[in-house]
């Protein structure tokens, strides 16, 4: 069960993902993980590869660039928050406003 507001989760997530390398690995890796889910039943090799590669990018981002632990280790809600964060990052990149709680730290591109 969520223990914080969505705004608090997004702010905490942004705080733990400040390095450009981490942001890039997450902006690619998270969509790969999400896209792998509907692919898995039809092409397990491709879906499994996408899933594994997406997670590998997450760990590279944290251990190589950010030098911290993934937030999902402390609270699994951050798995879903990460999907929202990545969507917001991509939307910001293309100048699209998503209806998410406003946050001063949710995105460096805001």
How many individual domains? 1
Beta content: under 5%
What is the element string, with H for helices and E for strands?
Answer: HHHH
* Shape label: globular
Enumerate the spans where pLDDT stays under 50 for 5 or more consecutive residues. 104-110
Helix content: 55-70%
- Number of H/I helices: 4
Summing up helix and strand content along with how strands pair, one would put the structural category as mainly alpha
Mean pLDDT: 87
Instruction: Report the sheet with the most strands, covering strand number, pairing sense and barrel closure.
Output: none
Radius of gyration, in Å, reads 14 Å
End-to-end C-alpha gap: 29 Å
Total number of strands: 0
How are the elements arranged and paired?
Elements: H1 6-15, H2 20-39, H3 44-66, H4 77-93
Helix pairs in contact: 1-4, 2-3, 2-4
């Amino acid at each position: 069960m969520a223990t914080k507001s969505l705004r608090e989760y997004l702010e905490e997530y942004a705080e733990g993902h400040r390095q450009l390398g981490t942001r890039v690995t997450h902006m690619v890796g998270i969509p790969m993980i999400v896209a792998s889910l509907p692919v898995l039943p039809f092409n397990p090799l491709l879906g499994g590869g996408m899933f594994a590669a997406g997670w590998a990018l997450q760990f590279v981002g944290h251990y190589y660039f950010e030098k911290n632990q993934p937030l999902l280790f402390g609270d699994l809600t951050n798995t879903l928050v990460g999907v929202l964060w990545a969507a917001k990052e991509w939307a910001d990149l293309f100048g699209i406003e998503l209806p998410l709680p406003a946050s001063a730290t949710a995105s460096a591109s805001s």
